[in-house]
């Protein structure tokens, strides 16, 4: 029997992209989808766009303390067997939920899975292909590399069983950039993820993306998050070296 799936979208002032995000969820050929959008009282045209789909999703529009708070509100409301979050500038590829639901139905003991994702620009055109292939390579290796040396997990392409929240709680709301990385590391303490080779989603990078012009703060928070879960000196040294290399590349290309 196919599991039900809950998708949570945190939203704030994403009128440029939110319609594609919503339609990518509603267009999924899957029988049991609960779609929850948590909007922090957007001041642009985001809310009118969302309300146009009010009969096909659950909308909560109220003030929140940030993205992580909004995601947690959705996760706490969710009733699906499987849950995920899809940010309001990303989108599902066709057939994603069918593939995910089928996998969990065939693997009842698997707690979470992650797949590949396309990296796209504001127009939806593929970019950063070397980065994508590098992360795919890491995910084919050991968790010490794709979760220890760096976070090579595609956030929008990651799904887990809702009942793990009874054991792990919810996302850490003090984290602004790495709430996903922290969550993967907590899930990893229970079980390594199943790795799917298929592209499930598109992850969008644009001028307003959080990591685009705040990468130094992001890498500082990344190392603090990593340090809570990995104590061995070789992997700590490797993680710091990797962050320094990526920061140098950012400085060069910006």
UniProtKB/TrEMBL annotation:
InterPro entries: Glyco_trans_2-like, Glycosyltransf_2, Nucleotide-diphossugar_trans. CDD domains: GT_2_WfgS_like. Coiled coil: none annotated. The keyword Transferase applies. Residues 6-110 form the Glycosyltransferase 2-like domain. The keyword Transferase applies. PANTHER family: GLYCOSYLTRANSFERASE (PTHR43685), GLYCOSYLTRANSFERASE TAGX-RELATED (PTHR43685:SF11). This is Glycosyltransferase. It comes from Spirosoma foliorum.
């Amino acid at each position: 029997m196919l599991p039900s799936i809950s998708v949570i979208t945190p939203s704030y002032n994403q009128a440029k992209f939110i319609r594609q995000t919503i339609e990518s969820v509603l267009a999924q050929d899957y029988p049991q989808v609960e779609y929850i959008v948590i909007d922090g009282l957007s001041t642009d045209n985001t809310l009118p766009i969302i309300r146009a789909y009010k009969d096909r999703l659950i909308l909560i529009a109220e003030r929140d303390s940030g993205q992580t708070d909004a995601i947690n509100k959705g996760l706490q409301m969710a009733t699906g067997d499987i849950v995920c979050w899809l940010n309001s500038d990303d989108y599902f590829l066709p057939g994603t939920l069918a593939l995910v639901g089928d996998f969990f139905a065939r693997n009842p003991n698997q707690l979470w899975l992650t797949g590949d994702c396309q990296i796209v620009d504001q127009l939806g055109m593929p970019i950063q292909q070397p980065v994508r292939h590098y992360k795919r390579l890491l995910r084919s290796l050991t968790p010490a590399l794709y979760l220890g040396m760096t976070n090579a997990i595609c956030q929008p392409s990651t799904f887990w069983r809702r009942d793990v929240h009874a054991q792990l709680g919810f996302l850490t709301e003090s984290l602004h950039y790495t709430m996903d990385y922290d969550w993967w590391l907590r899930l990893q303490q229970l079980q390594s993820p199943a790795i799917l080779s298929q592209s499930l989603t598109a992850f969008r990078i644009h001028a307003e993306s959080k990591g685009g012009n705040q990468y130094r703060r992001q890498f500082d928070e990344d190392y603090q998050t990593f340090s809570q879960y990995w104590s061995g000196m070789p992997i700590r040294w490797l993680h710091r070296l990797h962050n320094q290399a990526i920061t140098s590349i950012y400085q060069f290309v910006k």
